[in-house]
Design a protein that fits this description.
Layout lengths: L11 E2 L10 E3 L5 E5 L32 E7 L7 E11 L2 E6 L7 H4 L5 E8 L2 E4 L4 E3 L3 E6 L17 E2 L11 E5 L7 E9 L10 E2 L2 E11 L7 E3 L3 E8 L2 H20 L3 H11 E7 L5 E8 H8 L8
C-alpha cells in the first residue's frame, strides 16, 4: 500500500507544541501511512562533492526548524493521564543514508572528541548498507523521534528527549514493536520522524545512519493506566526509556521505573523487585549526544519467563 500522505510541507513541522493543529484525527486501531524526509528535511542523500541536495521546505511561519516530523496526529480518547500506545506496523527506508559528525558542540563533543566535521555516505545493498569506503553495516530501521508535546504552551525543541518521548533514539523500536507514551494534552498530538537505517547505543558521533522513511505505517491504542516515562516492547525485550542532563540522573530514573514496572507486572514488593532487578535488568546508554542523555533499562522476556513462569501484559 502506498502512503496516504504525500510529501507536502503542510504535513510536517520541526518542533513540539500543544498549540499545533493536528493534520488528522484517528480512532484507536486505525492505521496511518506516510513518508517522512530525513532529520534535516532531506529528500535525497548528501553528496561528497558538494552537490546541493533536494530538501522539503519548512512550512512558512513555523519555527524553529528542528527534526522534520510528520504530524501531529490526534487520537480519539487520548487525554491527560492516559497512555498512548504506538504500534509500528511497517518501516521502509530509502536506499541511501549518511552519517555526519565530529563537530564540537556542547552536546556532542563528549562523544566525538572534537575531531572536526566528517561526512560518510551509504547505499543499500540487499539488507546491508555499504559506505563510500566499502564498509558494510546491517540495516535495522527505526524512527529516532516519536513523541508527544508537553503541556507547556511554549514550543519545545526536537533535540532533547523528554518524559513524553521525542528524540529517544531507541534502536530496539523496530517494525513490530510498540511504544507507550504518557499523554499530557487532549488528543495526544503524536509526531514522528528522524528515520535511521542503523545506530549503535550511544549514537556517539551525533547522528546514526540517517535516511528518509519512504513508507511508515502506524496504529494507535489508548490505555487508561498512565505511564511516567516511555516504555517499549518488542518480541524479545521490554524497556523503560529515561533521560536527564546527566547520566547519573538518567540511570537513577531508569532503575526506579524498571523496578516499579517489575513490581507491577508480578505484584512484587518493591524490595523484592529491586533485588531481582539486579539479575534481570540491563542498563544501556540510548544516546549521549542530545542534551538530555538517555538510559534504557531493559528486561529480557526470556529471563522473565524463566524467573516467573509467565509473561503478563503490560496493561490490563
Amino acid at each position: 500500500m502506498n502512503p496516504k500522505y504525500d510529501l507536502d510541507s503542510k504535513y510536517y513541522h520541526g518542533f513540539f507544541a500543544p498549540s499545533l493543529a493536528p493534520i488528522v484525527e484517528l480512532t484507536p486501531g486505525e492505521p496511518i501511512h506516510f513518508s517522512v524526509p530525513d532529520a534535516g528535511w532531506g529528500l535525497e542523500n548528501h553528496s561528497l562533492n558538494g552537490y546541493q541536495r533536494k530538501e522539503l521546505p519548512c512550512p512558512t511561519g513555523l519555527s524553529p526548524k528542528g527534526h522534520c516530523l510528520f504530524g501531529p496526529i490526534s487520537i480519539k480518547g487520548a487525554k491527560p493521564d492516559t497512555t498512548l500506545e504506538i504500534k509500528v506496523l511497517k518501516l521502509e527506508m530509502a536506499s541511501w543514508g549518511w552519517t555526519q559528525g565530529g563537530w564540537p558542540t556542547p552536546d556532542t563533543s563528549i562523544a566525538t572528541g572534537q575531531i572536526g566535521p566528517h561526512l560518510m555516505t551509504w547505499e543499500l545493498d540487499g539488507n546491508y548498507l555499504v559506505n563510500n569506503l566499502g564498509h558494510r553495516v546491517k540495516s535495522e530501521p527505526f524512527l529516532g523521534v516519536m513523541g508527544l508535546p508537553m503541556k507547556s504552551p511554549e514550543m519545545q525543541l526536537t533535540t532533547p528527549p523528554q518524559f513524553c518521548g521525542g528524540n529517544i533514539d531507541c534502536k530496539h523500536i523496530t517494525e513490530g514493536s510498540s511504544l507507550y507514551l504518557p499523554v499530557t494534552v487532549p488528543g495526544a498530538l503524536f509526531s514522528a520522524g528522524d528515520a535511521h537505517h542503523a545506530q549503535g547505543n550511544g549514537e556517539i558521533c551525533g547522528n546514526a545512519i540517517e535516511t528518509m522513511a519512504e513508507h511508515v505505517s502506524l496504529s494507535f491504542e489508548v490505555h487508561l493506566e498512565k505511564v511516567d516515562w516511555p516504555i517499549f516492547e518488542n518480541d524479545h525485550l521490554i524497556g523503560v526509556l529515561c533521560a536527564a542532563p546527566s547520566l547519573n540522573h538518567a540511570c537513577n530514573s531508569a532503575v526506579q521505573q524498571a523496578v516499579l514496572l517489575l513490581s507491577k507486572m508480578y505484584e512484587l514488593p518493591i524490595k523484592d523487585a529491586r533485588a531481582l532487578g539486579s539479575a534481570l535488568i540491563d542498563l544501556e546508554i540510548t544516546q549521549c549526544v542530545n542534551q538530555n542523555l538517555g538510559v534504557q533499562a531493559i528486561l529480557s522476556k526470556e529471563k522473565l519467563q524463566t524467573c516467573f513462569g509467565e509473561l503478563p501484559s503490560l496493561f490490563k
